[in-house]
Amino acid sequence: MTIIPIILSGGAGTRLWPLSWGEHPKQFLPLVSERTMIQETLLRLKGLELGSPIISCGEGHRFMVAQQIGEVMGEVVSTGSTTPTIILEPMAKNTAPAIAAACCAAMKQNKDAVVVVLPSDHVIADVEAFQKAVKAAALNAEKGALVTFGIVPTFPATGYGYVKAAGAETDGAYTLERFVEKPCLEKAQEYLASGEYAWNSGMFVFKAGTFLDELKIHSPDMAALAIESFEKATVDTDFIRLDKEAFGKIKGDSIDYAVMEKTTKGKVVKLNAGWDDVGSWSALYDISKKDENQNVVKGDVITLDTTSSYIRGGKRTIATIGLDDVVIVDSDEALLVAAKGKIQDVKKIAEQIKARG
Q1: What whole-number distance in Å separates Cα of residue 271 and Cα of residue 198?
Q2: Which residues of the chain, if any, have pLDDT below 50?
């Protein structure tokens, strides 16, 4: 079975400021390995039978997408063209319209295409377990299911939404009973103890045609306009520019709200593969290799009497003395110094800088 990857690359990633910002969001940065995060997203599918990938992004990121995906295409794609399809969204309209347009492109490759929809900025440590889950999801998708991956929770997280899986496991999947918004701690503890809930990963597998059919049922206006924006798209060298007028009329929504919470065809494949959405510097600290002082150090850094810290240098040398539990990130434009326990507030700093112009 050939699977076509759809990679969503529209995010700004301001929680990883000052590196992830504006025209250089986190998916284009080598934060975890020597490869960028968008490259790792495609590379972890290596070994599966893949069609030519489709990447959905904004106008300003088109050349970075073309360059970075182009560098790894030959390692990954097994069938079809080794040139990616890059769809340019005229403006951000959330995930559902972007996925709908990408599904139209997938059906140009194969009218019965099975697609795997992946955000471009996640980390998955166990690639073998991930690929096994993709295969199970694809088998269910061929039978008409819309499959989401539910991350097996390791702690009562309040920063993630959840999905509830019901019934017995069949062909590697459970029935998708419902989505749950980010819970309070007490609820999250209940979800963890029940064993029925998983974190909502934002990753999906389905037939492109099945998704579009369900979108027509549950969000018909969005479906019609997304399809129109693709049919009226213009081709600019290696890029497909969606029609701005049609796409602009779409009332943006997530795939969860537009389809997955309403469909009767939902399935959950549980995934236990060291997943992380790398939503903060402290999250990146957690998944990175530590030295003997429990520090994560990148770049030209000297530490004395410094422990449990994430320190990432830029062009300058960074020296620390007598610090504990801090985050220091240097970039060409700015320097971040924060207590690790307060790092979630970095988004507020980014908002203030944006307001300054």
Answers
A1: 9
A2: none
pTM: predicted TM-score of the whole model, two decimal places: 0.92
- Provide the pLDDT for residue 79: 66
The CA-based diameter of the chain, rounded to the nearest angstrom, is 61
Burial of 56 (0-12, 13-18, 19+ CB in 10 A): buried
pLDDT value of residue 278: 87
Query: Exposed, middle or buried by CB within 10 Å (0-12, 13-18, 19+), for 218?
Result: middle
CB 113 within 8 A of CB 51: yes
- Please tell me the distance from the alpha carbon of residue 128 to that of residue 323, in angstroms, as a whole number: 38
Q: What is the pLDDT of residues 217-235, one digit of tens each?
A: 999 999 999 999 999 999 9
Cβ density class 68-102: b for 16+ within 10 Å, e for less: bbeebbeebbeeeeeebbbbbbbeebbbbbbbbbb
271, 289 Cβ separation under 8 angstroms: no
Question: Terminus-to-terminus CA distance in the chain, angstroms?
Answer: 49
Tell me the C-alpha distance between 42 and 50, whole Å: 10
136 three-state secondary structure: helix
> Residue 104: its pLDDT value, please?
98
Omega before 18 within 30 of 0, i.e. cis: yes
Query: Any idea of the CA torsion for 76, 80, 84, 85, to the nearest 10 degrees?
Result: -140
